Amino acid sequence: MDNKEQYERENRGEMPVKNVILITIDCLRTDHVGCYGYSRNTTPFIDALASKGTVFTHFFANGPFTSAAFPAILSSSYALDNGKVISLKGRTLVSEILQREGITTAGIHSNLYLSSQFGYDRGFDYFEDFLNNAKSKRSPSGLKILAEKINDEINTILKKKNFIPLLQKKSLLKNCILLRSIPYSSAEEITKYAVKWSNNISSSFFLWIHYMDLHEPYVILNTNIPQTYSKSLSRFSQSKVITPTKKSTYDIFNIYDDKLRYIDSQIQLLHTHIEKEKKDTVMIISSDHGQEIFDHGNFGHRARYYEEILHIPLIISGPIIGKEVINRMYSQVDISPTILSFFTISPPPHYCGLSLFSESKKMIISESSEPKDLNSKFEHELNKK
Q1: Which of 155, 160, 237, 359 has its CA 20 to 30 A from that of 91?
Q2: Matching CATH number, 3-130+186-381, of 1.10.10.410, 3.30.460.10, 3.40.720.10, 3.30.70.790
Q3: How buried is residue 203: exposed, middle or buried, by Cβ count under 10 Å (0-12/13-18/19+)?
Q4: Residues 6+ apart with CB under 8 A from 211
Q5: Contact criterion met (CB below 8 Å) for 322 and 54
Q6: Residue ranges per structural domain of the chain
């Protein structure tokens, strides 16, 4: 079945989909995914899914960081629809619609900005954001608090004396000795929870999982991540990457690529399990935003509207998905209407997006707010042919 026929069947309410899994990968850049032309073998399983499914070549984030992008992903609305303060107030999550329609829903991730504290648990029958675990893991001891206080005082003195080189060496030594633990749950743990949850579900379901492993800090030691591209990096080399500089770009990408291959293996594990137990399942793989790694002189993903931050991958695979490469422009607001269409549910009229298998819009909007730039906005318009 090609995608045109699929869309027509969607409108007739004949789609044979029982389950939908949405996988979002934090900080995933399109140019590091194999099926988008990357030379390294970072995503062998995602590439295999793409070879049998649908790849969207011009897919964009509606916000340059997590809290600006996810209103678009899960509620088909733009970040600043509520004004300069980004929140879920007045928005309808796709999970809420599905839950009302009798679809079992689950969300599993460890991103604080997507936690129950920010209302992202709405509409989910099962929601695990590891918030309680995070609190217990990150609660500092009295000794650690004292050590940090002393460290801050030393930093203040060195800055006042303008001993910047000494300050940098001290920071590097501290990083080398301590090497920060990652502030999120690993892909392995997220996948384990997803598999365990799915084992107990016999009804139609929507599962959303979010992997954080591509997010900084870029440290790979003391984890279960196999090192292919970063195996030559010593503990000292990795300690330099914790506080990134342009000089460490190559090392960052080596760690980034190993982490991406690790996430890919976890997606394969989940897919293998689902294929065995829940055959009528569509899998959607995308990102909330990319990551600037000194491409334009900066590091991270704040309110900057460059290709490496906004251009993100989107792959859809499953028993009803045709093999196709779609070059039309779409964005994250189109994800929720597509999920609803798979369950033959009409999106509410206030949803801003369209099905990914319908005609695309002429404009992509990406927006966000930050203290220094409260109404930052980017518009990408197609040239009229």
Answers
A1: 359
A2: 3.40.720.10
A3: exposed
A4: 23, 24, 25, 26, 109, 187, 190, 263, 266
A5: yes
A6: 3-130+186-381, 139-183
Antiparallel, parallel or unpaired: β 126-128 and 299-300: unpaired
Mean pLDDT of 321-339: 95
Average pLDDT over residues 333-347: 95
Average pLDDT over residues 237-243: 67
Q: How many CA atoms lie within 13 A of 210 on its CB side?
A: 27
Strand 54-60 relative to strand 324-331, pairing: parallel
Kindly report which listed range (1-5, 220-224, 230-234, 291-295) carries the lowest average pLDDT score: 1-5
Q: Using alpha carbons, select from 270, 174, 263, 176 the residue that is nearest to residue 223.
A: 263
Q: What is the total residue count of the chain?
A: 385
The pLDDT, as a whole number, for residue 319 is 85
pLDDT at 275: 87
Q: Which residues contact 206 (CB under 8 A, 6 or more apart)?
A: 19, 20, 21, 22, 94, 95, 98, 103, 104, 105, 106, 339, 343
Burial 106-122 (b: 16+ CB within 10 A, else e): bbbbbbbebbeebebbb
- What mean pLDDT, rounded, does the chain reach? 81
